[in-house]
Design a protein that fits this description.
globular; alpha/beta; Rossmann fold; disordered N terminus
């Protein structure tokens, strides 16, 4: 079997051939990536580009864009969403944060609540955590799976079946005009510790700290295995994953913005071209306005 080509250092795209390995993706910015000041300056430019691309997305009307964020605690999901999408018109943008499912949500299949939150055509939807919790957190907490009251569970088959369901669902969405982009913010255990300590030491961050975060941290290796499996088996051409280095927040935000701009530019979005009848209506409207007192 020929060797797979190395991942380009500034790409961060996870292979779509089920060969993903955590060891291939660093939590640090690539060598030669630049400096914090350079990243912040380029981010401002990318935010402006996203603003214009979102306007064209809405006017074009052919696509919806679904952006998925997954990460360990303190990786920077919220701040990345806030910074990268700060210039997007709120009328064409919606962010949904998925917490533990409600009783009503548990009464349906695990994809039901996410299906109901999908963006409409012309809009960008953000999933801050997502359907992937079902093969991450639920995989490591049997009590959460038991609460779903499934008719039968085969631990040897269940997670592979769920990832197959996710692939099928995302393939269906892609065939119907939903552009899917998925970001895993890849933070190191050492950097997470620093950020959690900051939440304890800084009064303005105390509200972010939860003791439960430390319980998750104690199972770091288990979570990394679950992430590796999930990303390996669900990164596909129509729904790619990107493993974004998250130890530097300025670089992380820029890397996400770059991917978003490139993804939207590839759609070849256009403002609608008016036909002869519409042009006549525009000319008539202009003439009526110009003769007003």
């Amino acid at each position: 079997m020929p060797e797979r080509a190395p991942v380009p250092q500034f790409d961060h795209r996870i292979p779509t051939d089920s060969a993903f390995s955590l060891a291939e993706f660093s939590t640090e910015p690539p060598d030669g990536a630049g400096s914090t000041s350079v990243w912040k300056k380029e981010l401002a430019k990318r935010v402006e580009q996203l603003h214009e691309l979102q306007r064209r997305l809405y006017a074009d009307g052919r696509y919806a864009v679904l952006v998925v964020f997954q990460a360990m605690d303190a990786a920077g999901k919220d701040s990345t969403i806030r910074k990268v999408f700060s210039g997007v018109n709120p009328a064409g943008f919606r962010c949904v944060a998925f917490g533990p499912p409600s009783t009503r949500e548990r009464a349906h299949d695990f994809l039901w609540r996410c299906q109901a939150a999908l963006p409409a055509r012309g809009k960008i939807g953000i999933f801050n955590r997502s359907h992937y919790e079902e093969v991450l957190v639920v995989r490591l907490h049997p009590e959460l799976l038991a609460a779903q009251r499934l008719p039968s569970i085969d631990p040897e088959q269940l997670w592979g079946q769920r990832m197959a369901s996710i692939r099928d669902w995302e393939r269906h969405l892609a065939r119907n005009g939903v552009v899917i982009v998925k970001f895993w913010l890849n933070v190191s255990r050492e950097e997470q510790k620093r950020r959690l300590l900051a939440r304890i030491d800084r009064p303005d961050k105390n509200w972010k700290f939860e003791v439960a975060d430390l319980d998750v941290r104690e199972r770091w290796d288990d979570y990394m295995y679950a992430y590796e499996q999930a990303l390996r088996h669900t990164s596909r051409p129509g729904a790619p994953w990107y493993a974004i280095p998250a130890d530097s927040k300025p670089y992380m935000r820029l890397a996400v913005a770059r991917v978003m701009v490139e993804t939207l530019e590839a759609l070849d979005l256009h403002y609608p071209v008016v036909d002869r009848q519409q042009r006549a209506q525009l000319d008539d409207g202009k003439a009526r306005l110009l003769v007003e007192d």
